[in-house]
Amino acid sequence: MKSGRRLISKHYILFLQENERGFHRLGIVVKKEVGPANIRNRMKRHLREFFRLNKQQIKGSFDMIILIKKGSLPEYYRETEEELRRVLA
Hints:
This protein is an alpha+beta fold. It contains 2 helices and 4 strands; from the N terminus they run E-E-E-H-E-H. It has helices at 37-54, 77-88, and strands at residues 5-8, 12-18, 25-29, 62-68.
C-alpha cells in the first residue's frame, strides 16, 4: 500500500502496484466503521463482481487493494461500477 499508486474517488481508495505474475490480484478492505456486517458484505460482493467482469479491460498485471471509505456508500452496483470505471480509466 505504501509503494504503489494511490487513486482516490468519492467512496473508494485504490492502491495499485504492478506485479510480475501475469494476472491481477484483488484485496478488499472494509473497516467496521463502514456499517453493519450485511452492508460490508454487500460492498465486498459489488467489488468482487466488478473485478470479475472488468479485469480483462485492465492492461498489465496489478495487485489491487480497494479500501472502502466510511460515510456515504453507494447503494446499487451500477453506482459502484461507474465510479470505479472513472477511477481506472
